[in-house]
Design goal:
Number of strands: 6
Structural class: mainly alpha
Oligomer: single chain
Strand order of the largest sheet: 1-6-5
Distance between the termini: 42 Å
Helix content: 55-70%
Shape: globular
């Protein structure tokens, strides 16, 4: 694509996407005013970040982008991330007296690797963007307006620490009541202080880390393994794509506070997740199979995390349906301690936790049948594009039922 054409498409995305994804027009109520006060010093400046990021994208569009194959750089970058993770563990173990060693030399190595990755980041971003564009084009997923081109929105993401997200749920049910983007750099104490202030208003609250966010360009965490990064970059682009479809419009209306609809949130997240898994697998298998080691926690012997979380969610729903709120909260804390003791760390388990993670219908914390229904629809669809076209036209679970029946 010529630099001029790329610049025009980038400019169009810059004008449209922030407007549809990031604005809020609903009149403020008492809860919104209280949340504004509580999060005043911690709110993430999306508009300011967008301005800086888009200026950088415009410069790259006008003066050229990385053209050489950067696959080797991608491999090096994620090998470095794995080494950084190991070094952090060694440094912590020495500081706590659990092992001997020269922590100062390890810190020097850590800083050198961080510097190397800072130099590689732009090439990694541009290489993965090109590989994702290729996979999407092969599947016929080019733009949400029909036809074969041009590609829109341009695939573009930034590797960095995404904002934190404050999730607010009622205590008597599990529901995404409010979401507020907060600064990426927050201590645990700051997060817990905000949660406590929201909970003092009578709500359930959680300040959680994000793997990505569909700004434009999208934010993708710079601390995850390669497969997760590819999938997340694809998923955030799918959210941008869907924003120009009936399904995505419903999500935009929910984000803006004009029409709250938890079903639409779940549908949007599920569709984006299904498509991004397939696109991500194409890119990973083609370029990186057997590449950088993936970081994950080994499961504890004999313990099934997914089963434990699903059991917890079902029990919590039963408690809340019976109006036994305090018992539900006591139960969740006991389950959190049990799960942590089996090797899976959860800082806080409450209604807001389930409201956030339950938005993803393939999550063990979700009891929503939407995930299974969409996967059934994918199995019946002749192609990934046909599935996406069908799903993007929906506005409610009734549409999904109709498509299956």
């Amino acid at each position: 694509m010529s630099p001029l054409r790329w610049f025009v498409l980038l400019l169009l995305a810059a004008c449209l996407l922030p407007a549809v994804l990031l604005t809020g027009c609903a009149p403020a109520d008492d809860l919104d005013a209280s949340l504004d006060d509580i999060t005043d010093h911690y709110r993430f400046d999306l508009a300011g970040w967008e301005a800086g990021a888009l200026a950088g994208e415009a410069v790259l569009a006008c003066f050229g982008q990385t053209q050489s194959d950067g696959t080797a750089c991608v491999r090096e970058y994620f090998d470095n991330l794995a080494r950084l993770d190991a070094l952090a563990g060694e440094i912590a173990a020495i500081a706590e007296g659990r092992q001997s060693g020269d922590a100062d030399s390890l810190r020097v190595e850590y800083e050198e690797i961080e510097t190397a990755n800072a130099r590689l980041a732009l090439t990694v971003e541009r290489t993965l963007e090109a590989q994702l564009r290729e996979a999407l084009t092969e599947q016929g997923i080019v733009n949400p307006f029909g036809g074969e081109g041009p590609a829109f929105p341009p695939v573009s993401f930034h590797l960095g620490p995404p904002p934190h997200l404050l999730v607010v749920s009622p205590r008597d049910r599990i529901e995404n009541l409010r979401r507020v983007n907060l600064l990426p750099e927050m201590t645990v104490a700051e997060r817990e202080e905000i949660e406590a202030e929201v909970e003092a208003l009578g709500y359930s609250a959680l300040v959680t880390s994000l793997g990505g966010i569909a700004t434009y360009p999208s934010f993708v965490a710079d601390s995850a393994d390669l497969r997760y990064t590819i999938n997340t970059a694809a998923e955030e682009w799918l959210h941008q794509y869907l924003a120009f479809t009936p399904l995505g419009l419903g999500y935009v209306l929910d984000l803006s506070g004009l029409r709250r609809d938890n079903d639409v949130i779940t549908m949007n997240e599920t569709v984006a997740g299904i498509v991004s898994e397939e696109i991500g697998a194409i890119v990973y298998d083609r370029y990186y199979a057997g590449a950088a080691p993936e970081t994950y926690e080994a499961p504890a012997d004999g313990f099934d995390f997914n089963a434990a979380m699903r059991e917890t969610r079902l029990a919590v729903d039963a408690y809340l349906a019976a109006g036994r709120i305090e018992e539900a909260e006591t139960y969740m804390e006991a389950r959190r301690l049990y799960i942590n003791a089996n090797g899976y760390y959860i800082r806080k388990l409450n209604q807001a936790y389930f409201a956030f993670h339950g938005s993803y219908a393939d999550s063990p914390t979700s009891v929503d049948p939407i995930g299974d229904a969409f996967r059934q629809l994918r199995g019946q669809s002749e192609s990934l594009r046909a599935f996406l076209d069908s799903a993007a036209a929906m506005t409610s679970p009734a549409d999904l039922d109709a498509a299956l029946n």
